[in-house]
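Q: What would this chain look like folded?
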Amino acid sequence: MSNDSFSEVTSTGWLSRIGKSITGVLVGLLLTVAAFPVLWWNEGRSVKTYQGLVEGEKIAITVPAEAVDPANDGKLIHLSGRAEAKDQVTDSVFGIGTPGTIKLRRTVEMFQWVEDKKTTTRTKLGGGEEKVTEYTYHKEWSEKTHDSREFRQPQGHTNPQPAYTSETFLSNNATLGAFVLPRPMIEGWRDLRPMATPAADIAAEFRDKVLVQNGWIYLAGKADPAELGHLRVKFEAIPAGDASLLARQVKNTFEPFTTKVGTQISRLSAGVMSKESMFAAAQAENTTLTWILRGGGLFMMLIGLVMILQPFKVLADILPLAGKIVGAGTGMVAFLLAGIGSSLTIALAWLWYRPLLGATVLAVTVFLIVMLVRSLRKRRA
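A: My prediction, written as structure tokens:
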């Protein structure tokens, strides 16, 4: 693939770096302080979601999909049956569509210039800093249209605007057994599968000009070598087939069910799944999200503490070796403090929401504090 690059060198004096690091302390304080409510909120959200799902599993009833029972109106129901579209979902541009398809996704990629940036920083004797930023340009297939006007060097790297973009098409009359699937549930249904697209199925205006290869439709009629601005398209779909659902019955359709603790339950999955399997999958997703947000809160706190301690490193950078030593030390302290702060917040939140687990997390926090004290004593020695 075509590529080129150029480098840009910038220098910052020691006094200027000290001023920036002091300003960064304020930002660091904001990040550190903000991390605490984020972590606390996440634990509360996690517990309430868990409790709501437990409540939902106890009260949910499994019903047949073949008939609508008015007696179940307003209840949380579980059912499995055949899902299909009564209308024809078709891509309005390329004419792709299969009877019964509930959801159709068109992905369009353009062969275009992409800018990559890599910065290397070197501290000089006297505390000054030199940054070498290398901008590399290469062409690749990408669904996102990279705006070449925002490139550091747009000359010679101009990207055209694609004639077509990615789009999703939904059925307006999809059913699950005797029930009607509401549009919001279809929009959130993620079980898309690759869809075969023979050239004969493509609209006549494209049929003789395209190449179908490895699931992609190359509009230029060739896959390689690709040229700037060439487009390729692929399709994914949720076809007619078995599906399982958890939601509140509202006459012959569905809406999210709200538990006593405020958790909303609304799930639609491909295949035949038991009630227990669907709730287990929901609990697993809650656990995954909880750990992701915990990691985000920890990272936020860590970055904030690094920024707060940054002036010490910059002051020591007048001798680059001393700056590296101080930087390693402040980095370790920031990591331990972030670990302690986040663990303590999680422990207190769990003590509030679930005392037994909170006590366990609190014990881990105490262990981290002991490790920090020992580390500081060793450094003093």
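Helices lie at 14-59, 183-188, 204-207, 275-316, 320-353, 355-380.
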